[in-house]
Amino acid sequence: MPSRVRPPAAAGRVYPADAGTLRDTVDRLLAQAPKTTVAGRIVAALCPHAGYDYSGAPTAQVFRALAGMAPEIVAVVGTAHFADRPGFFLAEHSALRTPLGDVLVAESEAQQLLKTCPSVTASAEAHAQEHSVEVVLPFLQRTFKDCKILPVVSNAQSLSEAKRFGRALAGVLKGKKALVIAASDLSHYPPLEIARQVDPASLESFLTLDPDYLWRTEAALMSLDAPELHCTWCGKAAAAAVQEAAASLGADWGEALACANSADSGGDESRTVGYGAALLLARGKTRPWPMEQVMAEEKAELLALARASVLSSLKGVRHKPRLFDRPRFNLPAAVFVTWTKRDGDLRGCIGTTTARDTLGNSVARYAVCSAADDPRFPAVSEEELSGLRAEISILSAPRPARPEDIRPGLGVIVGRGGRQGLFLPQVWEKLPGRDEFMAYLCEHKAGLPADAWTKAGVELSTFTVTAFAEPR
User: Is the pTM for the entire model greater than 0.85?
Assistant: First the structure.
């Protein structure tokens, strides 16, 4: 690494250039931040990187929660607003300067990162005018003593590249007193109403510690073409990389601290930027998946949405995918919607095992499909609908299974070649014996021999569901 110091580029622009004013500003923000009780070891954090007038409060909330730590190295992964190509860019400097002084780069670890991750490039140019790492440094300087940094900015375009970098970063930091920070803002430029629908969902996807899910959430939200929504993360790859690094370093829990917006600090409500603050922790237990925490009032709303969607379709009005006011409804979910007669006989059941579309839009879509397009039954009529009962099943991600793993309470997918069949866990109520259950699944849903599930070459997967239904 060249022995030279990167001068401040954002001082006087997004935070105070005068050392005394900057110190007082950061200290005031830290003092005003709510105190957070943290259960578990802090592994990583998310904080914004905007001007202190707008994002200073959520950033301070993160650093107040970090105040009890004494890391030797802090890796800050920001957004590369000025990079001329995709990738991750490590500052090619020995130190980064702010009005409060110099923060040394952990040069040994930087060299190790360059050697172990091909997508990382040492670059002074990518950092020359960049603010996303720099604005975090004064908070770091006022919170920790004598720590070094790994300053990285990201312009990566692929999930695989982000995950590869995250694993490499974890490998460099493993065994050290380290902290990883994703410095990224959330949505850019939607009106306030849209931001308040999008940002909580994006933040929740970060808390899952699943980069694939964060990536799918961003794709699902952007596919809805919300007005003036330019992005849901300005540092999507940075956030995904930090998720991957944190999980590799033992994190198993996410905790949100704040979800704020530029309009909260007097910005234009018609053109906003979102700010998230969160911690990724090692607690020794896995955080429940968002779809495992659906509340009673949310279940009632989803069941009402399913019925209303079918009724509208019968009147010639198809559901148009949209954002919902409830954040959970804007997260991707794998959903099946089942219609039954009041006596329990099946009337239609269609859904998906892939969490691609949002929960709210999936319920609306598959409610209509299961009522109108299930090939086993004629389409439901408007007169018949009032006598049917809706049930919604939200699926977990399928896991590969062996024949001996099959047991009551699990959903099962069986497949060979181009043939595949699925049974929801509810089917065990009518077919309680494992052999009977699997034989019926193979023959009647997958078009395979009854004993195919016991043979080599057949793929088995199991899943769990969060299921709820209208009263009988």
Answer: yes
